[in-house]
Amino acid sequence: EVQLVESGGGLVQPGGSLRLSCAASGLTFDLYAIYWVRQAPGKGLEWVSAINWDGSITDYAESVKGRFTISRDNAKNTLYLQMNSLKSEDTAVYYCAAAPNYGPPGYWGQGTQVTVSS
Predict the structure, then answer these.
(1) Phi/psi of residue 51, each to 5°?
(2) pLDDT at 19
(3) How buried is residue 112: exposed, middle or buried, by Cβ count under 10 Å (0-12/13-18/19+)?
(4) Bridge-partner residues for 93, per DSSP?
(5) Are 37 and 27 in contact (CB under 8 A)?
(6) What residues contact residue 75 under an 8 Å CB cut-off, 6+ apart?
(7) Across-strand partners of 102?
(8) Are 71 and 80 in contact (CB under 8 A)?
(9) Which residues contact 67 (CB under 8 A, 6 or more apart)?
(10) Mean pLDDT of successive 10-residue segments in the chain (118 residues)?
(11) What is the pLDDT, as a whole number, of residue 102?
């Protein structure tokens, strides 16, 4: 059974930082591109960032570019999202999703809540 388990969410003040993790099991992790996708209250899904199988290619939504950094450790089957200079508009449930060859995600985690508020 494939599992993606996000962690690291929480409440943080504007300008603060958080690091999200996504632990994968049940799949050959380094065969998959991994995405971070978020959903703000009352809104649809928004793609945040992506990383290819070995971490050599990364991509970011304009709204987070320069503030968020995606990375992965294939030896630990884990994906990370370092989030700095957080804003209230970053408040959302953050999901990791695994996709073969940068295609549509085939597997999703359950999400972790990030709340940015003073």
Answers:
(1) -145, 140
(2) 98
(3) buried
(4) 39, 113
(5) no
(6) none
(7) none
(8) yes
(9) 83, 84, 85, 86
(10) 96 98 95 96 96 95 98 97 98 96 90 97
(11) 81
Residues 6+ away with beta carbon under 8 Å from 18: 8, 9, 10, 12, 83, 86, 114
Q: How far is CA 10 from CA 46, 90, 98, 101, in A?
A: 19, 12, 23, 31
Amino acid at 60: Y
- Cα–Cα dist 112/6, whole Å: 6
pLDDT value of residue 101: 78
pLDDT score at 13:
98
CA angle 49-80-117, nearest 5°? 75
Q: Note whether 112 and 6 are within 8 A (CB).
A: yes
